[in-house]
What does this fold into?
Amino acid sequence: MTANKTPGEAGHSAAPTAIWEVRLLGGLSAAHGNTSLVKFPSRPVAMLLARLALYPGRSHSREELIELLWPGVDLEVGRGRLRQTLSTLRRLLEPRDVGPGSVLRADRLAVGMQPRAVCSDVEDFERHVREKSSAKALQSYRGDLLPGFFDEWVEEERTRLRALFEVTRARDDEDEGVAPKSAPYPSAGSVAPALPAMLATLAAPVRSLPAYVSVFFGREEEQQSAHRMLAQHRLVTLHGFGGCGKTRLAVEVARSIGGFDTVAFVPLAECNDASQIAEQIRSALRMQAATEDASGQLCAFLADRDVLLVLDNFEQLVDGGGAAVVQDLLERLPRLRCLVTSRRSLDIAGEREITVGALPLPQASMGSADVERSASVALFVDRARGARPDFALTERNRVALIELTQALEGLPLAIEIAASRIRAFSPQEMCTALQQRFSLLARQGPRAARHGRHASLQMAVEWSWQLLNAEQQAFFAALSVFRGGWTAAAVDAVYATHAPAAQLEQLVTDALLRAETDAAGITRFSMLESIREFAQEKLGAAALALRARHRAHFLQVALQASASRPLGEENLPNLQQAIRSAIEDDEPAAALQVGVALRPYWDALGMPPTVLRLLREALVRCAPDDAALQAGLNLLAQMALRAGDMDAARDYAARALEAAGVEPAGRAAALVTLAHVDWEREQRAEAVRPMLDEALALAQAAHLTRVQADAMRMMATVVLQHGSRHADYDKAGAMFACAEALYRDAGESSWAHRVLLSRVGCLAGLERYVEAQKILATCEQFFTARASTADLIAVANLTGFLESAQAHWHAATVAAQRGVQLAWDRHAHLALGGALWNLPLPLAMVGDFARAARLMAFSAGFWERNIGPLSANDVSTIDEVRALVVERIGADLATKEWTAGADLSLSEAVRLALITAP
It folds into this structure.
């Protein structure tokens, strides 16, 4: 690019070199020496540079610039924005090596460029045209003015310069004695149109894409995939639900891709007829209609060009012949490639799809830095600052933001709408307001309508719903009874319909369902909660019967699970829903039946607090004479005990025994449960032995192998806990071996391994550490294969106990911390109490005295408050830890740390326990 010359200098010496060379044709950029500006901090900064560079000799009034950059804005607001924008542009154009004031000149009335500070390719082009240097003019015209910017003044100037280019090209063709380039191929017998008409059909190479002001977050993997696919395939579809960010992703891909003469964005949202597609493409290419055959004109114009068309919002055109139009264009134009955004697949041979799903979500375990880097949170914070500039991620709102973005499911549309309401709702209030999801996720104010069907989340879902026929709508609504993921077989059991697999496949194609293959090779379907809530509202009178069939099916799923075919965690959402819907439909006994059937699952993975609350509610509603009551009470006693709620556990166990009466099976099971609860509460052998003796006798008489095993296991536990001699450890070991054999006879392999774990304590008492470690390794392998988290907590706690017994203090610390983390994640407070208890002594032994004192003080109080009284062995452990701490840091400091530990909350104690030593 050369500097400008004055009219009198044409053909003579060059003007002094400008400081900045600005490119306006084909894209906006600026160069100064080795410095190149391609991306700008904001759209107003880019537009201000473009306006000043386009007219470098003019002084632009500040009012004029405000109206051009922010049409309709209040003048005082605009003045502030212009000052900020001008300041940013000055920092870019006047770095240290340029010098202040050498490029921009501004006073309180006007803004402009210093003489000879900038030159542009527009100046070069117009100078060559004036000098009738057609070849140089055509060479300097590298594309339309400022592609992607659609401001009125830009469009006017773009049209003027393009017309000047067309005239120059026609003149150049006439001089060379050839037909105009890129003219439509005339059909046989036709008469070539006059030059002006022909010029009207032509357009320069364009790169016309929407210009976004907002920042783009995430999607790196999808962008890379799109680049790779477009390099190899001619039709790539970005497929996903409305509001997932397909359009923005497509524009970012098109903007960053190279190798095309022409890149054009074709909006199709308002098109309902396939016949409109070609006309929309012609409009996007800035072509004037010269024939009624838009398709033929397009093919003639694009025949010798490498073209990328971004066909946006195609879904409503798929069934009406739109896919055939795209296929026809691809067949007639071998150098054409299409990037399509659609909620439905085009189903054309050669089509490649990229599924555009939710943005990655932050996790509760993340620190602030990782949360801030999460694309979902980053998007929320950025958009929220548009409404409240002072908004930021802080430690106070971190948890609420994590919860909110998870509830919004990483859906960009939902996140942006929620962020726009930050003036009226805090993140925590939004979490509560999401109980009425569609009321919260609707744009507010007079400008909401300009967003079309993205003005609210409900409108976005409604658009997809309207594309379904009546049969598909009924089927889709029925799927709202499911939660999490489900299989085609489950749908077949719950909803009587023809070919459910084919209908599921169609809904996946329509981006209303997601399909994934699980570890067993089975396809599981799921939908966003936002979509499910919409579908549920459409269900109507059929809901009650469908919910009942859903409960019946998943009760059978729970009952059919076995040791050889354990119930997978992927079924939990539907099983929880079966319990919830039973309560909502006034069927509390059904809720208890499902809960009891899932006992093996709860034993392995623990019962979530939400399920515990639901089953407690079912117990309250259940009739006293209902057959499900006694088994439900027995289950709740065990689960409340595991959760650390000793009073509730004792109450449930006593009520279970009362409900069982004299019936042997129920009474024996209730006696074992009550003995277990009382043992954990008070550790009094004389109080629980009579109950266990009676339970064992009843079970033996009634041939109840499983209950015999439970009673024997508890008897062995009592002997082990009160044992202090080799004879006691031998006796407990023999009783555990008997219980293990009984469990195996009953087909309870998981419980057989749990008893095997209990034998580790016996072997440790006998100092048979190698044998104990082999058992731990065997059990860990077994429970890991079954993803049995509750049992892996026990493995971790016993590993810590065994390592401590051998004075392997670092290994004991690591094992105890693992037990704390697992128990905390699973809300297993009884196991958590044990894991926290096992940590202070190893910490003291490795020299972490302050942390040992705090955790020992907390654990002692936690155990007494939530589990039961401390035994003599427990008191001995406390005394040992305290003596070690006092010896090393002194009595005063030890007392201070002890007091601080006693005042910790549970979450604070867990965080303290999980600190990793340097």
The first strand starts at residue 20 and ends at 23.
